[in-house]
Amino acid sequence: MELLRIARDQLTPYDSVVVWNAEAVDASSAGEGFTVALASGETVTTRQILLATGMVDELPETVGVRERWGTGVHHCPYCHGWELRDGHIGILAPGGEPFAELRVTLLRGWSSNLTLLTDGSASLDRPARQRLEALGARIDERRLRAYEDGPDGGYRVCFEDGEELPVAGLFVAPSQHQRSGLAETLGCGLDTAEPNPAPFVVIDSTSGETTVSGVYAAGDLTGPAQSVILAAAGGARAAYFMNHALAAADAQAALTAAGLPAGSDGD
Ligand SMILES: Cc1cc2nc3c(=O)[nH]c(=O)nc-3n(C[C@H](O)[C@H](O)[C@H](O)COP(=O)(O)OP(=O)(O)OC[C@H]3O[C@@H](n4cnc5c(N)ncnc54)[C@H](O)[C@@H]3O)c2cc1C
Q1: 3-state secondary structure (DSSP) of residue 4
Q2: pLDDT at 266
Q3: How far, in Å, is the centroid of ligand 1 from the Cα of 56?
């Protein structure tokens, strides 16, 4: 929120920037550009669109997990592994879902004290169990009752059998879906990107343009490598190419109006 506030503040000197604090509920191509309908009832016309609407994480239902999302519950070892280094890390993977081994693989460098919590019988075959154990993870298949704050800034996993397991933090591997349906509405191509099976917006890796001309995308909605700096970089990169395309179109129009052919330098 602080970064967002700073970014908004830094935009205020630019007269050409208008911030609409409203949900975009629909978008469609219109002539050379697009129209975007806002929940407020207004309609915005635009020559291009940059989609940066993010993804939704589908968290496990365990009581106490949602409330501690971002404090005692994490998903990204690159964002939060260091804070939990050498601590007892719980990995919540209900049923032992397919990301369990990947989580263990990524976290075992931060701590050798890993417990995989499957919240009931795991659908792990014998080779999968052997691999997890060889990688240093204990597998605990007891049903969970809740996840709570513990003493000294730590947390505790509470089992239905009444026992508790103190942990420094909990990692989950949530499934994701697109936060907004705008990309689909506009006809942008979606595809999965290993190792995350969520549908991501397909973009050109250089320009950030989607499969729909004039619609660009940046940030989490474009792929599984998700962080603030990558999202900002994706937005900056797309902005270069959006401006490039607009400037080229304007120059072409000016040359055409002057009765001159376009130059040969496309850069
Ligand atoms: C718990 C947690 C902890 C994290 N910790 C870190 C960390 O320590 N370091 C790090 O680098 N990254 C971290 N991340 C990842 C980081 O937050 C994301 O990678 C980053 O915020 C992605 O930015 P984004 O702009 O793509 O999407 P988002 O941040 O999700 O922003 C999308 C925005 O679009 C808006 N929006 C969506 N649909 C519409 C619509 N139809 N109309 C108008 N607005 C719309 C949303 O309201 C939202 O404001 C963390 C993520 C989570 C969930």
Answers
A1: helix
A2: 47
A3: 9
What's the CA gap between 116 and 103, in Å, rounded?
9
Per residue in 160-184, is it b (16+ CB within 10 Å) or e — as a string? eeeeebebbbbbbbbebebebebbe
Are the C-beta atoms of residues 34 and 27 closer than 8 Å to each other? yes
ipTM > 0.95, yes or no: yes
Cβ contact 39:198 at 8 Å:
no
User: Distance between CA atoms of 195 and 216, rounded to whole angstroms?
Assistant: 23
Nearest CA to ligand 1 atom 2: 70
Instruction: Pick the residue whose CA is nearest to atom 38 on ligand 1.
Output: 53
Domains identified in the chain and CATH numbers: 2-56+176-224 (3.50.50.60), 60-173 (3.50.50.60)
Tell me which residues have their CB closer than 6 angstroms to ligand 1.
23-24, 52-54, 57, 69-70, 79, 179-180, 182, 219-220, 226-229, 231
pLDDT range class, residue 114, cuts 50, 70, 90: very high
What distance in angstroms lies between residue 220's CA and the mean position of ligand 1's atoms?
7
- The residue whose CA has the least distance to atom 29 of ligand 1 is 54
Which residue has a Cα nearest atom 18 of ligand 1? 227
Side chain identity, residue 36: V
